[in-house]
Fold each of these.
Amino acid sequence: MKRVYLDNNATTPLAPEVFEVMRPYLLEDFGNASSIHWFGQHAKAGVEKAREQVARLLSARPSEIVFTSGGTESDNAAMLGIVEAARGERKHVVTTAIEHPAVLSTAKSLEKRGVSVTYVRVSASGVIDPGDVASAIRPETVLISVMHANNELGTVQPLDEIGRIARERDIYFHTDAVQSVGKIPVDVEKLAVDLLALSAHKLNGPKGVGALYVRKGTILRPLLHGGHHERDRRPGTENVAGIAGLGAAAEIARAHLAEEHNRVAMMRDRLEAGILANVPLVAVNGDRAHRVPTTTNLTFDYLEGEGFVIAMDLRGIACSTGSACSSGSLEPSHVLSAIGLKPEQARASIRFSLGRFNTEEDVDAALKILPGVVEQLRAVSPHYRKEAVSSQPSAFSKS
Amino acid sequence: MSIAIAMSGGVDSSTAAAVLAENYSTNPSGPAHEVVGLTMQLWNQRRLPKLLGEEAGEGGHASGRCCSLDDVYDARAVANFLNIPYYVINLEKQFEATVVRPFVEGYLAGETPIPCSLCNTEIKFAQFLTTARQIGAERIATGHYARIRRNPETGRYQLLRGVDRSKDQAYFLFGLTQEQLAHSEFPLGEMTKLEVRALARARHLPVAEKPDSQEICFVPTGSYRQFIDAYLAEQQRQPESPAGEVVSTDGHVLGEHQGIQNFTVGQRKGLGMAVGAPLYVIALDPAKNRVVVGEDRDLFRSRFRVREVNWIRPPASGDAVEAHVKIRHNHPGAAARVEAHGSCEAFVEFHQPQRAITPGQGAVFYDGDEVVGGGWISQVL
């Protein structure tokens, strides 16, 4: 069976050329980057090269890049680090209702420590209104954290406007850019961010490594305690192979950004158009004009999302319902709830996310299999049968 | 054609999956067969953290119980070992609505419910079959010790006990419809438990030495009373005044109880009184919130009413049938006359009185190895 991977927002395959860059650091160039000798120097050179590559992708300085274990650590380090280092007894953080759990759970843990947090709401577009962020700000606000691209919808947030607001008020601005880096231009100057989290495995790099951009002059208390690695910002012997892989992945992404953007967007649009044309009672979630090129999220009325993902997988097509992290739990996706979907609509929503290794044949395969699978699932739904007779999407129509 | 096997992570369903995987892969004739392993996530053990002990309150998890992470881990390990596709499906919402809530309501109404039968009827052979169809499987299989046969003359499907009498689980399956029986398989029906263990060992299944589970799967402490208390507290539904009278069979008030859900017919311990001859719970009266107690001989009764009767082999209309009737899982069964009363009720009359006929339990009618029907004991007459 031909297997088609359309879940690139969950993770991406490692690019073979990235693997080739990593390989020597797993074998002969195994040194500890802190060591004085030849072995250490070779490892150190690999780390510093990667730092430059990542910095270039973000239009940042190499000294502003801190390597971490991934997006979750970067988000934690940024948020906890800023809030802990901030002065004042009363502290306040502004974030949004559609953040990844890496940010949302960190915000909840801050609340348990006595920090107040405002979760800015979002309309059906899935795009945050910068005005809502501005009006959430208080005198004691120490941090604004707004994601760049949403992992479930793909919607891109107006960071430049929010960044301007933050800068005017002299508030640190962090973004979880895990889903945008390598897919759309990310320039820390244009976006006016002070901190930015990214993860290697979302851009065809290895798992277990990521980075945090920290603008020069930002006062951040380290999350972990240990040696003097990463300029005292992140202790622990460097994951040299992983870091080199991240650097290589960043380099490749930067070199092909424009052409890949167009190629993937065209495939995504064709997939989306094909579904809309061939399946009744389906709607796209979020503002289609402001999305990363990789992602489409659709609600298929009367569909059991979990069953759909399994049925598609048994036919070789990998996609997801909700976000991978919330799968297995009953709670409907907080993102889909935030844009106004009812629980049954959220559970009937499917995300397809494309990437560098997808081809037009993959889209063809998905489009060939999908309508039949949707029909197979709907045929078992008692609601659908009733509604199909009266051909009114009443019970399921959006409020 | 493909078949979905319900995998709990235990040795029975794992062995059933192994048998299916072999049968289906070694059948070169006909269309391609496929076995899909599914684990039903039915209950979140973290929901009532008090029942798990203090260390499990946050971040902890129950182990060795239904739907625990360990069981899902085991089921997944077996599926990987057998090289069959495997998924966890979430049926928590349906399980709570159709099994847990009626279980709690049953106790509050003075019954002693049996959630496994309800789970089979509502979840395993209804929701699970629906999910199997959604993902493209036509049939389902479980690790029950029971057998299904099609009667060539009538065309109807028959439900039979498993050949291992000591493991008979047909008792729990009395609610299955013809449609459900027609689309189900019990790969262990012809095997004994010893043979199942031996097969699991011979195939080196990762769970070959795993102990059998015993209690009600969603009651982590094994104490249904603690579960009901915790569940009612979570629902903010503490009964206002659960206390009521303990009375003798002739109506004399002997004492007070703290809620009829804490009692079951036949129970001796926990009455909190010592008066002469040993006392037993004879009946529970939800209308008067009373516990009726008496001597052991008062427990022996013959006639009772059965509700929601499902006839797997319906009697000729208007006829009463002679059957071997079991009134709980570990009851050996006794000869009785079963009179169908309308399409969904029946009256059962034992030829010899039986001890502790308990409302809420299943009454299952056998003809030899065959389950001809069954229902829920509603009233002892």
Amino acid sequence: MDILVVHLFNALLYASVLFLIAGGLSLIYGVMRIVNLAHGNLFAFGAFLTASAVGQWFAGSNSALLYLLLPIGAFGAAAIGAVLEPTLLRPFYRRPEEYQLLVTFGLMMILEDLIRFIWGPYPISATVLFSKMGSAKIGDFVYPRYNLLVIAVGGLAALFLWAFIYRTKFGVVLRATSQDMRRAAALGVNVNLVYVQAFTIGCFMAGLAGAIIVPSQSAVLGMGVDALVLSFIVVVTGGLGSLEGALVGALIVGTVREIGISMFPEIELAVLYLIAAIVLIFRPAGLFGKTA
Amino acid sequence: MSSVPLPFERRSPLKIVVWAVPIGALLILLPRIITPYQTILLTYGLAMAIAVLGFNLLLGYTGLLSFGHSAYFGVGAYTVAFMVKYLHVNSMELFVLGAIAASVLVTFLFGFVCVRYTKIFFSILTLALSQVLWSLAFKFFNVTGGTDGLRVPTPKLLGIVSGEKEDKILFLAHDYYYYVLAVFAICVAVMWLIVHSPFGKALQAIRDNEVRARFVGIQIRRYRLVAFLVSGVFTGIAGALWVPLNGLTTPDILYWPFSGEIVFMAVLGGFRNFTGPIVGAVVFNYLKTSAVGFTVYWQGLLGIVLVFLVMVLPTGIVGSLRLLWAHARRRLSQ
């Protein structure tokens, strides 16, 4: 029984991180109709920034300060997003989507090497935050408390985002822009500003995912590319552009991964991709998506 | 495709001969002029050119952007590696036939699913399916060697020329180069016939206006599936030719950034041209090799080149040259 609880927590852990990454990807697609292939690299950037801040620059400081430093990766990724959208992406909204995919693919290559340039080729870890929190007892099992924090952050992020998009004025503007950009513009919405904000929030979420994952696992090169494909599965299953979809997709992928790792480790990834493909065959817009 | 498509080149047979003969002669003579190392680089470029030529039947002519062509390249390469490991075959002709058979099978299966969609969904679906193969190659260590990959020794060409006795470099730079060149020439000719056939015209009609094409009576899905099949098989052949050159196949060629490289090559040369993908593949190969030699940050450098290309030269090398040429001719005639 207790082992089931542990598995459940692990599934939720994956789901939280995946929701943060895929939710950002989906938000960006929902508002701007761009699939950002460099999104995974922003996740990696957040991880590297937090890891170096906690594990190197301020290593040995007061632990309260270190916990406060944790979200620095999210803000760093958001800053990059705020710069990238107006400079690199904006010229491409009117162009065919193969160019949009290509420019973000080029961006992915650049960001990947930018991370290598800044932090070098070796993994960086910030395990101090992970070990400081110790473990909780679940029956006969010990479970790291930090993982529970990650789950809580994921859940809170989902809640905040929902409230933000469905309960605030900015959310109304965002949804209006996403549904009909021209009409929103005609009604006086500053579409360019909404685009920058949406992209920045999306990048913030990816960076936050990187920042909270880094105390439990190191920041390594290539983590962005891997994360992107997993979050593709999430958004494809849930529906591109839908936040509910990203949440449900993240829960599905998290659960399947957790079951897969203990029961069919060899084909765990293949099963995930197949699920995505099967969902696409029967519901091309995903479980929660609306066909354009 | 929302942009107004440019018409493809229309050339008389005489003009084609005028272009093709000197280029063919140059490609035949080149190994005598350049170093073996340069020749091997060119061989890589020609093998990749076949893959990009196939890829462009989908992007340039049918209007479908596949982000999963690494799958078919990998199928070709891994088929050869499996034939070496489990069937102890070493004949290059059998390798190519095996790769064709395997890629027909996989492409049909994937294509059947993918051609139901267009635009971004097509791209993501092809990507997701290609990653199924990557994860299998990555995880089934006993069968595929995992990240270590599988070794492929130099094959026997036409049942007579074997690279086992002579120096491997010389074999690759001479005998194997001409072999790849011959296959390349056949593939270019076949692709030329395909895109200029009524079938090729139908694909372009589908790309330009799907609804009208359907009204004319074109069975869109079936045409797309055939295009997908041809495209995948070309890429599979390229994978088979590439493996002996590389000597090793690893899951990297199945991973999705490799698909991105194939797209990169097509855009670099210009996917609105017949010759664009060929030029793009050969140039990309040189570009990548020199970038790798020049800096450890070669990937970022290539990324900058890609972003620049997409922003400033969306018609690629060949498209831009043709624009320049047309411009110059207009100037001269005035």
